[in-house]
Amino acid sequence: MSNEPTAFSGWTRDTLDNRIVNPDVYADPETLHADYAKLRHEDPVHWTEPTGYRPFWAITRHADITAVSKANDRFINRERTYLSPIEGEEWVRSMTGDTHLFRTLVDLDDPEHRKLRQVTNAWFQPGSVKANLETRIRAIAREHVDIMRARGETLDFVNEVALFYPLRVIMEILGVPREDEPLMLKLTQEMFGALDPDVIARSQTITRGVGNAGTGNAQVDLFALAQIFFEYFGKVIADRRANPRDDVASVIANGTIDGAPIPEKEALSYYVITATAGHDTTSSSAAGGFCELARNPAEFAKLKADPSLMPLFVEEAIRWSTPVKHFMRTATQDSEIGGTTIRKGDGVALFYWSGNRDERVFADPHVFRADRNPNPHIAFGHGVHLCLGMHLARLELRILFEELLPQLASVELTGEPKLSVGNFVGGLKSLPVRVTWA
Q1: Which residue among 81, 97, 135, 139 is least enclosed by CB atoms within 10 Å?
Q2: With contact defined as beta carbons under 8 Å apart, do 399 and 137 qualify?
Q3: Rounded distance, CA 298 to CA 438, Å?
Q4: For the whole model, what pTM was predicted?
Q5: Which fold has domain 13-437?
Q6: Range list of H helices, 111-192
Q7: Tens digit of pLDDT for each residue in 2-39?
Q8: Handedness of CA 149, 152, 157, 163 (dihedral sign)
């Protein structure tokens, strides 16, 4: 293995390495996807040394991302879950004594991960999701289409529909009352938008010492945010143990591992990841799919003319948006990926958005096709960490557009959509559209 700089076509290692971790660049997809494409073609397993970060291997091809994801014994989660500046990692360790603020399914490895996942696994299987939730989700979708109609012809689809529909679904699953949804929306947006200036401007919890890539820029105080989450869901646990209901909150509160209750931090973290990831990822895919229908009248007409294409459209919306941009792994032994030796202890970043635009897998990957088939995207991950809520996300998206599209004659953009600032989880934060109701 060589860690010497690789010669690229007219751009430097420093520029590239800093760009692919820079949260601002994720709001500029044209630049980001150009960098991804160069890496896929010229150095798909790329030794990366960004300023202010621990170095790591950037994995950008679909096949290599899949190979790492399936090798869960050789590439583990618990050391590094996502890209964070050294300053941020040290701050988390100083505040918690651990490398993570939470202990969620994505932070843990087997056997802990497997045991935690089994607590709710049956609940999130496709048969259970469809049987238990389809009627309730359809009612929520109709309610939000009615809200959209009441707005008239012009609206911001993200801030008036896409944020609130999946929020209502996931809060109902967790048994959170409607009056608490504004708090949950604020917390989930701050969790994944901690570096977005618009989110920071709205936040009342700004840290003063934690910066982006060592710059010292202010961001949302994630430790304070975690404490608010833990306090809120601590009350939910107590309530569901005393008064269990037919919801995931009760399953988690009363779940056991090896005959004992789920440890407190793991239980609280279970609620947090369900509330945050279950909301933001679906919201981003809904907005991303609707945006491309507005950009491409032919795709809108195709889907309107043939509703049986809806499952394919849903998969394409997920591929296109890829709400989770990356996850980190750490090598437990020397391994070879894509012809490159990864040494024990090396960090590995799996760039899913790059893998989902891989020309070797997808024909015309930068073109949105509502009827793309096959569509082997990796937005839900692979291996033992395959997204637990993927069947729920698909159901939510399908039902929303089944209820919305028959009522629309047309949709068009009235301004430039804006993506959130952040290199971990994100999507559109603004989508101004004009709709004509059928």
Answers
A1: 97
A2: yes
A3: 17
A4: 0.93
A5: Cytochrome p450 (1.10.630)
A6: 112-121, 126-150, 157, 164-174, 181-192
A7: 333 343 444 455 689 999 999 999 999 999 999 999 99
A8: negative
